[in-house]
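From the pipeline queue, job 12 of 40. The input is one protein chain; the requested action is below.

Action: predict structure.
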Amino acid sequence: MNVESHAGAALNMTSSWVGIASLGIFLIAYVFIILEDKIHLRKSKPIMIGASLVWLLIAIYAHSKGQIALVAPAMNGYFLEYAQLFFFLLVAMTYVNSMLERGVFDSLRYYLVSRGSTFRSLFWTTGVLAFCISPIADNLTTALILCAVVMAVANGHARFVSLCCINIVVAANAGGAFSPFGDITTLMVWQAGVVEFIEFFDLLIPSLINFLLPAAVMHFFVPRGVPARTTIEAPDILHGGIQIVGLFLLTIMTAICLHFFLEIPPVYGMLLGLGYLKLYGFYLRTRSHGWTHGTENPPGSTDDPYDFDVFSKIAHAEWDTLFFFYGVILAVGGLSFIGYLDIVSHAMYGNLDATTANVLVGILSAFVDNIPVMFAVLTMQPDMPHVQWLLVTLTAGVGGSLLSIGSAAGVALMGQARGYYTFAKHLIWTPVIALGYGASIWVHLLING
């Protein structure tokens, strides 16, 4: 039991009106999150309001019991945890947006589209790239870029598009599972110090199995032949594009080295890396036609290849996701303070063996966003061996592939390939994906147990 849970236990809130009301508020907020695509209400709004109401009720109840001093330290602890993750993700998003604006990903897309590959080779190429890119970039961005490639060459071939999208979602989620940079859940595990950076690579082979096994089965259903050639103009990588890729890799190495050698939290290395980008952005602006001496943010010219503004890339970060993350951490933290997560921890990790519980965590993440699920597990801190912490990292990362709604990549591709990739089409292949899910767990326990 953590410090916050001890404080909450002293107030005995689980069976009180504040506990029941807080649980109801959280469930109502999550219903709105699930219905995001139907009602077009961004998911950050209900969970932020829900989190605030939960802690407001906790504070009112604690004040009535003369224990208000317990609340602020608990809130500050959760907020500090969120702040570190917020700035880590903000830097990563800024770099990805910079590479998008410089045309790095457009050039990759053009290269794939112009090769004249067969349907089956494109199926494997996009899948392998999704698996290889998502450990560095996030799985959502990776999936969107490669889906654009598929849509560009498909020419309305529905079966090819649906199979490729399923393969991309599975590959992107699997690739993100063995890297702290591949998914928010793995980043949370790394930031919490539960799994060290180098230890994530113990999940490489299980993640590879999770991707390859379903892909090998789907391969035989991908149509043969070559798609009709699509003529698109070759895009140019703007000045600094390749250098920004190098700076992003340097930023990742900085965060890893500072954490490994000096035990400095990774977020500080990422913020140092943002300094690299800002300094290089200043260099680009000095070569811009719109730059004048002494002007920090000149107007620039829309057709000036040197025009680059870091702050515009920060402005285009996924703010809804970042604030959703705030709501999740504070809301789940509030339920932990009340004492509900101790009850759940005892029910799952007390009555079930750790392997069964962690497999269920992955299945749950196919229905519920894996961020609150993983944060709940980290908050509960169940007593289990290191191999089981690796297992829950794997299952929470790849379990979302079981359904199209189980991951951000799947939800995004349903919108991008609307009509071609749907919940029902993904569901048809769920048994095959589940085969890969089970095989990856078995391989992990075999080689890492």
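Job complete. The mean pLDDT is 87.
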